[in-house]
Amino acid sequence: MNWNSLDAWWWPFLYIGIAGWIATDMWRWLGVLVGNRLRDDSAFLIWVRSVATALVAAVIAKLIIYPNGELANFPLWLRIGSAVIGFAVFLVAGKRPWVGIGTAIILIVVGRVLTTG
């Protein structure tokens, strides 16, 4: 069975959902089992958090600077500006993720509407 085995519209969504769940859930359970035995301030756990944060930052930077699909049609200054302002609002709002994310989304949509006329 492969990606093109079924013609149903829902097949890619099911495939991605199951594959994504299997790929990530295994590591979550392993983290729970191993993490219970570690202190929060242990050097290993600090290193793991640092690597995880760096990976997320790298993925976000890649999506902003080298986007795929429709986002590639947005100007670079708009993508970077929305992310920077969204991050600033996140910090000002007491580190509430949804406030910063919502601000960045609203800014990029409004900016796109204004730049396309």
Keywords:
mainly alpha; 4 helices
Given as residue ranges, the uncertain stretches (5+ residues, pLDDT < 50) are: none
What percent of the residues sit in helical stretches (DSSP H or I)? over 70%
Q: What is the count of helical runs?
A: 4
How many domains make up the coordinates?
Answer: 2
Strand content: under 5%
- Rg over CA atoms, rounded to whole Å, is 19 Å
- What structural class do the secondary elements suggest? mainly alpha
Shape: flat
Multimeric state of these chains?
single chain
Distance between the termini: 46 Å
Give the helices and strands as they follow along the chain.
HHHH
Can you walk me through this structure?
The chain is mostly helical. Helix content is 73%, strand content 0%. The chain has helices at residues 11-35, 43-65, 76-92, 97-116.
Blueprint of the fold:
Elements: H1 11-35, H2 43-65, H3 76-92, H4 97-116
Helix pairs in contact: 3-4
Pfam families: AzlD
Protein name: AzlD domain-containing protein
Transmembrane segments: 12-30, 42-64, 76-93, 98-115
Summarize, please.
With 117 residues, the protein is mostly helical. 73% of the residues lie in helices and 0% in strands.
